[in-house]
Amino acid sequence: xxxxxxxxxxxxxxxxxxxxxxxxxxxxxxxxxxxxxxxxxxxxxxxxxxxxxxxxxxxxxxxxxxxxxxxxxxxxxxxxxxxxxxxxxxxxxxxxxxxxxxxxxxxxxxxxxxxxxxxxxxxxxxxxxxxxxxxxxxxxxxxxxxxxxxxxxxxxxxxxxxxxxxxxxxxxxxxxxxxxxxxxxxxxxxxxxxxxxxxxxxxxxxxxxxxxxxxxxxxxxxxxxxxxxxxxxxxxxxxxxxxxxxxxxxxxxxxxxxxxxxxxxxxxxxxxxxxxxxxxxxxxxxxxxxxxxxxxxxxxxxxxxxxxxxxxxxxxxxxxxxxxxxxxxxxxxxxxxxxxxxxxxxxxxxxxxxxxxxxxxxxxxxxxxxxxxxxx
Length: 376
Prior knowledge:
Blueprint: H1 8-15, E1 18-19, H2 24-29, H3 35-39, H4 57-60, H5 62-74, E2 79-81, H6 89-96, H7 109-117, H8 119-147, E3 152-157, H9 180-196, E4 201-207, H10 210-227, E5 233-237, H11 252-259, E6 266-271, H12 275-288, E7 292-297, H13 314-326, E8 332-333, H14 341-351
Parallel strand pairs: 1-8, 2-3, 3-4, 4-5, 5-6, 6-7, 7-8
Helix pairs in contact: 5-8, 5-14, 6-8, 8-9, 9-10, 13-14
């Protein structure tokens, strides 16, 4: 990559620590939404509960979702994520398709092929992704213009509700409920819709199964090659107490080795254990990776008695992320579960003026390769 191809966000990362937003689900919780609110008129006759399907709010409560984006931007976020963590046909099927296990059957590749081919689920997934990206784009541009500071939209791509690495059947270790190609197809649909809606970046996040993530990265590569448009890619994993991805059990170094070939804009850790327990694994990743490092952890461990559902308040998160910045570990910082706009404002203030982590390759060679240059 030459400087002529340098993405505007990379220029920012060279000069300061960029801020990514907090948790959409946590912040929605503070609005007191009900089952009726998420259903609206469109989904009022759905037979399953939908309240935990937060992506649907982009369709039924767009003003609320837009208000959340506005608040995160005004709190200092340079990057806001689309409300699309579960916006694939595979994940949406959990809310709109009867579970065959309730009738003596099982979920298997034949079941998920019907999901992939279902016109309702395909259209719904596209609409959630495209509309959410457009909502983010509108607010990023509006606040960016008002503050004379460019803001960026990251198309959020979650880990799915199925695993390519593990069998759910204790008696059949080789069984998988879904195939790699099925997962890739679902991700390709999501990627195309996120691009159509105006995303600046694509973010594969909360990776607990590296093979699922690999399917998402292959999906991106194929969409880039077929459609002739390429976006920078961010990659972020969730790790457990041993510092390994939760299902595929890769260490942070192994995880980096598994994804570095895509030449991401950034690699990092999110969600997971909270900022105190994530520190040593972030430190290891920062030592190994030669791209920008992101970190947006949970606000501590879950606590149902807390207003946000998590232990740490804004000043707690600001203190921990400030330590990460002073330690030279990060280029992008924010919060995952439990982090509201108030948390992001405190984190932004704590990191203001701190120098970003320096990485080995200057610039990130090949980060935005032409579509003909394979990165997968």
